[in-house]
Predict the structure.
Amino acid sequence: MEKITLEDVELIVRTMADVALENERYFSDLDAVMGDADFGVSLADGFRAVLKGWDSHDRTSITSFLMKISTIILANTGGCSGPIWGTLFMRCAMGAKGKTDLTLPDIIAMLRSAIEGIKARGGAEIGDKTLLDALDPAVRAMEEWPAPKDLLGAFQAGADAATAAIEGTRGWVARRGRQSFTGERSVGTLDPGIVAVATMMQAIVKKLKERA
Amino acid sequence: MEKITLEDVELIVRTMADVALENERYFSDLDAVMGDADFGVSLADGFRAVLKGWDSHDRTSITSFLMKISTIILANTGGCSGPIWGTLFMRCAMGAKGKTDLTLPDIIAMLRSAIEGIKARGGAEIGDKTLLDALDPAVRAMEEWPAPKDLLGAFQAGADAATAAIEGTRGWVARRGRQSFTGERSVGTLDPGIVAVATMMQAIVKKLKERA
Amino acid sequence: MKKFVNNPEDFVKEMIEGVVLANPNLKSIPEYNIVYRADMPRNDKVSIIQGSGSGHEPAHIMLVGKGMLDAACPGNVFSAPPMEYVLECTRLMKSDKGVLHLINNYQGDRMAWDMAKEMAEMEGIKVGVVVIDDDVAVTDSTFTVGRRGVAGNFFVIKAVGAAAERGASLEELVDLGKRVNSVVRSMGAALTSCTPPAKGKPIFEIGDDEIEIGVGIHGEPGRRRDKIKPADEIVNELYEAVRDDLPFKSGDRVALMINGLGGTPISELYLLYRAAALRCQADGLKIVRNYVGNYCTSLEMAGFSITLLKLDDELEDLLAAEAEIPIRVF
Amino acid sequence: MKKFVNNPEDFVKEMIEGVVLANPNLKSIPEYNIVYRADMPRNDKVSIIQGSGSGHEPAHIMLVGKGMLDAACPGNVFSAPPMEYVLECTRLMKSDKGVLHLINNYQGDRMAWDMAKEMAEMEGIKVGVVVIDDDVAVTDSTFTVGRRGVAGNFFVIKAVGAAAERGASLEELVDLGKRVNSVVRSMGAALTSCTPPAKGKPIFEIGDDEIEIGVGIHGEPGRRRDKIKPADEIVNELYEAVRDDLPFKSGDRVALMINGLGGTPISELYLLYRAAALRCQADGLKIVRNYVGNYCTSLEMAGFSITLLKLDDELEDLLAAEAEIPIRVF
Ligand SMILES: Nc1ncnc2c1ncn2[C@@H]1O[C@H](COP(=O)(O)OP(=O)(O)O)[C@@H](O)[C@H]1O
Ligand SMILES: Nc1ncnc2c1ncn2[C@@H]1O[C@H](COP(=O)(O)OP(=O)(O)O)[C@@H](O)[C@H]1O
Ligand SMILES: [Mg+2]
Ligand SMILES: [Mg+2]
Ligand SMILES: [Mg+2]
Ligand SMILES: [Mg+2]
């Protein structure tokens, strides 16, 4: 698999939604440890809205589809997650402009732009123990992947890097979002956003492999 | 022992106070089951005030001493207990008028008058599962005591009748005081006032026997 | 014990100090737990006083102020005040126009206030009495002291308080108070118990999935223990018991109160208000005034009560009159 | 779950319905959780809006009314509202004089309100911003979003609300709001956790003999976990942290607020007020206004916070101005 098409993008978004809904309680429980226990609900609210009008979403292009997802997330997701995931989809939409399918370099560029957008939106840096610390190593692993035409291999490497970040960041101090208020007390806990990104990426790879 | 003197009366009141203070928590716990958990505290508050000026209380006569106790109880005891125990001491004080010592018939008359006073004050009848259901059988046992000159024997019989009332009234429905609001649900519980009266009477007999 | 207290014995005393520190128009006599208006008594106004157990705040010490109570003399937590507190309070508020005793219908209160009234009258003080017993949870019976006084008390105070400011006589106030009491009905439910500071433990046990229907404001058990159910169903049960007791009928103008028992957040009280108001609308009761908040509590108990008061022009006018008490927002 | 709820997902919606049923001068747009004054917007008055997570009631939907907020658009319990709610609320309250955004300083709120402001400005709406961050429990640091906004929010709303009624411009209100925020400081402590309806379980665990010092209003852990100690000692610790942060100095005129976090009875709040007021007196702070009650809560959490606001003539005057909101007594 060398490229992904609009149908693949749909599958990716749909898989993200399924993960969000299946893990609603689990993600909130993770957030309850040092945060405010709303992450799972917020994310699920957003993706529930995405699924609601699923068949009627604009599918003229990858860009218009992803832009629609971004708008729905922004309209329906509370907490930090609305602006952050909304920005993620918006940046990806912009990155897909004019394209009918996406290569690994396209995807890497989209995700790099998304990371920059999230940084600008919420002021987080890499290392602040947010979902950026799953996204960034994932993209780096994809960048370092030796066979650019093996998209699935690259995705798997990215997903594994994100998964490694779950435990890899446990000992860090949270510096953004609700958990940051606890300072040193956040050491030893998992960041729910990182768990969500890793879980979604693994599920996406699995689905894409099934389809391929 | 045929009669009791002012000193005996003092000992009796002091013993009542000791019982009230020693059982403060226990009496409140009993009241907590179907009532409002204040009986022990209220009674102890009253008797703490009695003990406070103990040496300076008017001791010109049994009447003036008991009247002083009544006043202190009324001033310092909250809940139902203030008016009820205040009335008890007031009626006893009135019954002792002009007497320097008290025979069994004197004491029986005083307690009968106290029972009537409490009935008038709070509207309770015998059988309503209040401390009257310890006092009344106690007085009856004293009335039926075959040897009027054996005061201690009569007191012991009275105390035993009061003690029997503790479990004897357990199956009754409370009709007065806070516990009465629970209706049938008060069946199976102990009335704290009955427990207090019985405990005090047993302690009084013990103290009088020690002195005799 | 999950409470902000110092020495539990000082609980009432320190609360009273707080009230007086925060409200310079009030004074206190710590010895008798008395809180009173600094500008009272006045011989051209009947004095209105009340005092039951503490632990029901804002009732009664935080209801002292212009247009409401002139003084309050609470007892310990959940204990009627000793007779002497009532007598001292009556003496302090002595007025040529008389002193009105507003008594919540509990055995201990009745006795203390009865005795104090007898003594005050022997001293030449004119005393009038209104007994409040709005709780429909407890069946009235000749065997017991009768129904309990709960949140409806607020409306009796408000009405007679306003009328007293306008110069009503003691007799008029007694009639008015009795009239308000005769058209007000309440019933409550609780999800948790409460912990009197001196006791240090919850006053009753209740399961994580249980609710006490018809609970008393001293933690007395209610009509029955039930499993928790949706808020709307709980409201239905209380509302119907309250409505049917008077009964309130289609076309009646009413005041509707959702009273928190101390530990219920106002978000939930408004959710409960919604359910009760919709029931009133469906039954044709016209809600002219509404009250959502903590008026008569049971320490930190999580629970609420519904109160309905039937209105007429006079009562509406009295409820709308200005008043000033420690519980306020601004 | 010891809560009065129906379907937990309908919690905010039904609470809002209750507020609007009880206050006919308010309207709502359920789709966006908006509660607003029926008589607003008006082109001769700046509109003031706010909306953070729900669960802090009366903040913010029960602070909508004359002289306070013109509209509120809360999110779910403890979640900042989605950006679109804020944008719709801004559009609804559009006024020639502008719309003032009062934002509590949380990451989610900051982002949603920032985005909504950008979009509203693109539509030609004039938007001003005041960020509230009065909680001294959290150390300010360039690494984090900074201090949290808590009970001090009430004073910002009250001041700008009163000034807006008097015709102040958007720029003046922004300056005023920032000025109030610069002289207000708060810190809280909690004895119990709270249970968001959708979660159904307490948000944190805390032992029977423990207290969380510096707790956040979303159940965020505070400075540290301690053993429960006497109320006066707890007040001392919070008071000193608040006092020293500005710092407040002898001779300062202040407003003192003891804010309940939802499950603390007002009896305890007054006991705490006593301790705080005595400390102020000892330090020479002159308490000109006081506030004892639930202003900014964390559902049914048993806890409280202390807020001190430094006053001047202008602020005193604005705090004293008339205002009308759903939380009221009569
Ligand atoms: N400024 C930020 N930038 C990037 N990600 C963030 C930021 N703040 C929080 N997050 C992520 O969002 C997750 C929490 O989301 P959510 O619970 O919706 O936010 P809130 O803190 O407002 O309750 C965190 O676990 C973290 O991964
Ligand atoms: N009307 C009454 N007459 C006689 N005794 C009573 C009456 N009411 C209550 N009691 C007694 O008082 C006890 C409770 O006292 P207390 O707890 O002080 O009263 P309260 O019910 O006001 O809390 C009961 O156990 C009962 O024995
Ligand atoms: Mg969160
Ligand atoms: Mg009792
Ligand atoms: Mg009692
Ligand atoms: Mg949140």
In short: Chain A has a mean pLDDT of 94. Chains A and B do not touch (no CB pair under 8 Å). DSSP finds nine helices and two strands in chain A. The pocket of magnesium ion (ligand 5) is lined by residues B 36, 38, 79, 178; C 53, 78-79, 108 (CB under 6 Å).
